[in-house]
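SUBJECT: A protein chain and its fold
Encoding: whole-number codes for local backbone shapes
Chain under study, with its fold:
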Amino acid sequence: MEELVEEVLVRIPPDDPASLVRAALVCKRWCRLISGASFRRRFRELHPTPPMLGFLYDRYSGVDFVPASSFRPPHAFREDWRMLDARHGRVLVMNVGSFSLMDTEFIVWDPVTDGLQKLPILEFRRSSWSAALLCATAGCDHLDCRGGPFLVVVVVTDVSGQRRTSAYTYSSEQGAWSEPITVQHHNDCILRLHRALVGNALYFNYELNTEILEYDLGRRELSIINLPSKFHGWHIVLMEAEDGRLGFATIQESKISVWSRESGPDGYAGWAQQRVIELDKLQPVSDMWLLSLTVSVSFSCGQMMGYSLLI
């Protein structure tokens, strides 16, 4: 009988999580079934494409959750927070309510359970920097890793003299920040938005788009990817391309162009245009200015317990 109940409950539409909660309140047996790891994994395998639960919106006074489904987090508004990244079931925020320009407190938040983990204070000058959050379990399929170990990577550009970028890594397993590693580069500053996780490496934009910062998580090494001059000054959004390589999207006039990095026979990695989306066929030309403001947001999506938060 319990197997039949599970077959019914596992087919509840994922964009209506409130129905699962109501089903769990029917009796203790159903509650144990729905909250069990086996059921959660089957649910994610049956519904591999996460629906949109809502948006995290950075207001002047804090972070606000704007629902797009029946889901509501226990605390929809968080005062004195700044949104940084969302990935693998967690959200990375910065506490701006206290501390100085040099002392930064990062918080890892699970919007579903409302669990918080405050990280040790990291001292750096917040003039040119970015941060990323990711699962730390090797080979994880990220279907049910919200409670597992995680990493937070902070990259900072020193703008006081010779340009160099340093990376600090926090491991939840070690409970401490690593010593920084550093790479020299051209006269450019790291951009806080639009980082991307591709394979086992994190990628970050520089403001002028003359280059991309690569952080190899396995070797714990920083390197610089130079961009051809035709991309300099473009507004690009880093992403994982359809072929699993590093890619980016950009708007040119009324078109979205998607590019990916390719390796040639001599080992040199160039860039190839994968596809072009004609926006004027989808949206009136008069609305292109608004679309240009939102396209960078639309390409950045973090998974939350099998669901999605657009950031």
Observations:
- Helices lie at 2-9, 17-24, 28-35, 37-46, 288-298.
- Residues 288-298 form the longest helix (11 residues).
